[in-house]
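Field reference: sequence -> structure
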Amino acid sequence: MDKPLTTIIYKLADGKRICLVVTMEVKSLLEQADRKIRSQRRKERRRHTEYIDGLTDTTMVLPQEDFANLISRIDSYKRLHAAIETLSDARRRRVYLHYFGGFTCRKIAESEKVSFEAVSKSLVQARKALCELLTR
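Structure field:
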C-alpha cells in the first residue's frame, strides 16, 4: 500500500536548500517538532530576557533556522548509517552495539566469545573507515 508523499524544502543558514520527500505522517511530526521548538524558544526568551538600561539583550533565532538545522542533522545521520552499512558484518554489529546500544567492548567480547582486543581493534578500524567515507 503506497502512502501519499509530499515534498518539503528548507533553506539553511548558509543559503543551501534541502529537499525532502516524506510521507504525510512524517511531515506532520516534523511540523509538531517545529511548533514545540518555537514554543520553547518563546518561553526561554520571556524567562531569560535581561534589561540593561532599558534595552533588551536577546538574540533572536528564527524557528526556520532551528528546523533547518534539524533537517541537516537528519541528513548527517542518514549519511552516517549508510556509511555504517558498508562495514563488514562484525564491525557493523560492534559499532551498533557499542555506540548505539551502549555496550562496553568487554560486554561485546563476552557475548561474541572473542577477545577484548579483537573488539577494540575492530572498533578503531571501523572508526577509521567511517572517517574516510564521511570526509570524501
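Note: The chain has a mean pLDDT of 80.
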